[in-house]
Amino acid sequence: MSGAGWIRLVVVAIMVGGLEAACRLGALPATAIIAPSEMLRAMVEALTSGEIATDIRLTFTAVAIAASLAVAGGFVLGFLIHLSPRLRAALDPLLAAYYAIPHVAFYPLLIVVFGLGIGPLIVLATAFGIVAMIIATLTGLDRVPRVLMRTARVHRLSPLQEMVLVRLPAAMPHLLSGVKLALSYAFIGVIAGEFILSTAGVGHAIAYAYDNFDNRRMYGLIVFVIGFMVVVNTMVLLWERRLAQRRGAR
Question: Domains in the chain, please, with CATH?
Fold first, then answer.
């Protein structure tokens, strides 16, 4: 583990330990927040009981579909926008201001259009994550070194060969950053949608526990969501580092 990794680990340990001590000593009321150890115990109980298995399956299905659509669609759209400077100039201001739009506010309209169920969640989460992938694709393709492009021309590569052998490997770090953001935004979109009007899902379970003052269950599920995203992002980060090491070895 690098020095920065150890620093992050120490900071997290201090924060969690401080919260644990504050809760155990009564500095923070149990009606507001519970100790991290109790959150972890509540998470294990919720997972082992099987009561939220259906909610987890619905949420993860929606996230997987939305993230896949956001990543694939964002890459294709970003590539097409990159090929057209005029279209790029027209869309740049819109892409820059996109995340200022309160997407969750459109969820009732999506229910009217797509009905209740997983459909509105997928549409909302895809819309939330696709622009992050578009921006990452544009950034990655913009920053391909010119020397690599000249080398591709010298070797008379076809456009397809140039894309597969030169552009994509050079843009991969930015594309992976886009994948991480698209996945995170897709998860946020699904959970936020389930909070509002959904009748199932992890977000609905958290909201239901909150409405019924069930702090243990609520914080347990929140820890589960945070832990899942940490694991996924760590896996993508390790993949990114492995690709960087392979490029360095070459």
Answer: 35-247 (1.10.3720.10)
